[in-house]
Fold:
Amino acid sequence: MPAARTTPVVLETPVIPGTAVRLVIGGVDFTARAPVALAPMAGVTDGSYRLIAKEMGCALVYTEMISDNALIYGNERTERMLRISNGERPIAVQLFGNDPKTMACAAKLIEELASPEIIDINMGCPTLKIVKNREGAALMRNVPLARDIVASVVSAVNVPVTVKMRSGWSGELANAVELAQAVESAGASLVAVHGRTRDQFYSGRADWNIIKDVRDAVSIPVIGNGDIRSPEDAKRMLAETGCDMVMIGRGALGNPWLIRDVVTFLSTGTQTPPPTYEERMTLALRHLEMLIQLVGEQRAVLKMRKHAAWYVRGIPGAATARNYINSAKTGDEMASAIRVAFSGELC
Ligand SMILES: Cc1cc2nc3c(=O)[nH]c(=O)nc-3n(C[C@H](O)[C@H](O)[C@H](O)COP(=O)(O)O)c2cc1C
Structure:
């Protein structure tokens, strides 16, 4: 039996159906917030991006996934992933692994080093390197092990433990409902469901029906995830699935304003005008500065290449802008590539 949860989870009927929920998790009351979470994205959702998401009104952010073994072996870069500033809270730190004992040990380290509001377990990563190691989405094929991992982590820490999963391993094994029930019984406080199977990776359309099926089958809160690209999508997912919060992933790449737009739409029903080029340039430059502070100039420039390419998407001359961005080697070169991109000179 897992240890009793020490932090309350309260879930009641939505205050305004489909827009706000009575959701308290880990002592954090999300009731007054628009129910919008930023998806964990490896290589993307570091401290800089999480802060930007919070500034856009995001209720909950997740770290990139963190390896249990890398943490236990004291990997410096992994430990740096646990540096969390107050502005990012409430935050879920996401952990991946395949062994109940090492997962519990790593979760304790996370609790000591970062005191997150939530520890999340990755049961959705589809990449071969991860699933070959029986981690990530491979846990969907091994429900007893998934349950043991959750029970073990729940016993080890005092913060709520949650799980992010896919709709299943494959079309034939779309067992999110079974897995959600199993991890609920092991003490999980919330599940996030990405409506694609592991076989689909990121292609095809997310199946929101399975999010509804999970919502109907468990009594813990459910976060719905997959293909939210507009405020209307978010509202529709809340209404169609009954999920308690929506989670935005790729739609926010280079466009964190999507978070702001969804939050505004869910809170007030109004649409927000898109950001101007000036706003896009200013945020991209700030993002670069934040990354330099976080990981140093050299790594920041490399990381910023993909972000900058996303920020300039859709502007006239974007292809030329990407050439400048990809050849930038210093912070100054990257900053001027961003300025030039938005200057109108590349049309
Ligand atoms: C670049 C990238 C990295 C990702 N890394 C993670 C991760 O570390 N942990 C995780 O649970 N999901 C990860 N995901 C999956 C997303 O959290 C999300 O489930 C998926 O993108 C579907 O949502 P979307 O349709 O809004 O993009 C990643 C997705 C992308 C595109």
Observations:
- The pocket of flavin mononucleotide is lined by residues 39-44, 64-65, 94, 122, 124-125, 164, 194, 206, 225-228, 248-251 (CB under 6 Å).
- Residues 162 and 189 are 5 Å apart (CA to CA).
- The first helix runs from residue 47 to 55.
